[in-house]
Every structure is written in structure tokens, then in C-alpha cells.
Structure prediction request, 72 residues.
Amino acid sequence: MTDVVDSDELLRRLQRARACARDEERSWRDRRDALRPTDPGEAGEAAVRVLAYEAVVRVLDEILTPGRRAVK
Prediction:
């Protein structure tokens, strides 16, 4: 990627990425909950993806709003 972007555009892109990660996290959480009674193996895979998206959201939150979340 060789495009030069200003800080406002970078901020918008990070905010869109965070919103997308939240949507994906929610989607995988719903899938995990739906699969839990019928397919524990697939529910486990979905749970791993939930954790991955949670991590992405945490990182993007810290970039966009430093210090807002308590450090565990």
C-alpha cells in the first residue's frame, strides 16, 4: 500500500476496523452459543474466534482511546 493518508483518514479506518471486529466478535459469539448444544467441536472453534476478535477489539480500543480500559 503506497497511498498516503492523513490522520483523519487513518482514524476513520481504525474506527471502521474496530466496528468490524466488534460485529465479527458478536457473530461468532452467537454462532458459538447456537452450536454449543449440538456440535461442541465447532462451538470450540467459534469460541477461539471470539477470543481472537476480543483481542483485536481491545488493541484497537487502546489505540483509539488510550487508557480508557483497565489493564488486567
Observations:
- The chain has a mean pLDDT of 92.
- The longest helix spans residues 7-35.
